[in-house]
Every structure is written in C-alpha cells, then in structure tokens.
Design brief:
With about 170 residues, this protein is an all-alpha fold. It contains 7 helices and no strands. The longest helix is centred in the middle third of the chain and has 29 residues. The chain is elongated, with a radius of gyration of 19 Å.
Length: about 170
C-alpha cells in the first residue's frame, strides 16, 4: 500500500508544483487566484483515484475497502502536500520576488474588488486586511498554500474511496 501511494504522491506533488510555477510564469498568482483550487482538486482526484485503482486492481484482488481507500488517499495527498511545500520553499528561496509579487497582486485584487469586500466587511476590517497583506511572510504563504492543498485532498479522498470500494461477492 505504501509503495503505490508514495509513487503517486511524489508525482502529484510535482504536478502541483508545476501548476504553481507555470501559473505564476503566465501572469496568474496561484496564491490568490481561486481558480487554482479547482485545478488542485482535479489533480488530487486523479492521483488519489489512480492510487486506489492500482491498489485495488493489481495488488488486492479487485477489492478495496473504504478504510483502504481512505488510507491510500491520505498516503497520497499528505506527502504530495509536503513535496509541494518543499518545492515552493525552494522557489521562494530562488526567486524572492514571488513574495513581493504576491503582496502587490493581492493588494491590487482587494482594491479592485473593494465594493464586494465592503459588502462583507467593514471599512476598518478592509484596511486591516490590506495592512496584513503587507506583512505576510514566506512562511505564512507556504503554510497557507500547503494547508489549502491538504484540505483539498482531505475532501476528495472519501469520495474516491466510496466510488472505488468493492467488497467480495
């Protein structure tokens, strides 16, 4: 079980990192663009599915219990999140402008959508949020990004485990 999950988790982490880097290079900031959460979910669905499917079809005689699917899913998305976090740490170390670009784009995003934000929060909260963006550290960005990836995998795994579970006849 470990070998199957580890294989897919390393590839999944590499895909997440590649998506981050390509998105950034094409002008989209993956730390503030919510479209990336959709792509993260797709990546996790694919790799958790393939991990569970390979284990079920080739290693477990066509049987996958729910707990096995959950375990495989966790062993796929958790290390993939660690690979992503390590990779993004290296990217931040290589190109410190990533952090400053995030801050500039996040402030621009908030200011351009000021009316929508003010419908959900007060002017003081809005101003406070803008000030907090300016003090964001790379550790906070890495932790926030990793947490979002982890939660995406957490929510996808039970669905895949339920879909693929099969008990013996």
């Amino acid at each position: 079980m470990w070998k199957v999950a580890l294989k897919y988790s390393l590839i999944c982490g590499a895909f997440l990192l590649l998506l981050f880097w390509v998105s950034y290079r094409f002008g989209s900031n993956p730390m503030i663009d919510f479209k990336h959460m959709f792509f993260d979910l797709i990546i996790f669905v694919l790799f958790v599915f393939f991990s569970c499917k390979e284990f079920k079809s080739y290693r477990n005689g066509g049987i996958l219990h729910f707990w096995q699917g959950m375990t495989l899913g966790f062993l796929t998305y958790a290390p993939a999140t660690v690979v992503f976090a390590i990779g993004i740490t290296v990217l931040f170390w290589i190109d410190p402008n990533l952090i400053e670009d995030f801050k500039v784009q996040a402030i621009q995003y908030m200011k351009s959508n000021r009316v929508e934000f003010l419908s959900d929060m007060s002017e003081e909260q809005f101003t406070s949020q803008l000030e907090r963006i300016q003090t964001v550290t790379s550790t906070q960005m890495i932790g926030g990004g990793a947490f979002k990836k982890f939660m995406a995998g957490f929510f996808v795994t039970p669905v895949i485990a339920i879909i693929l579970r099969k008990k013996p006849n």
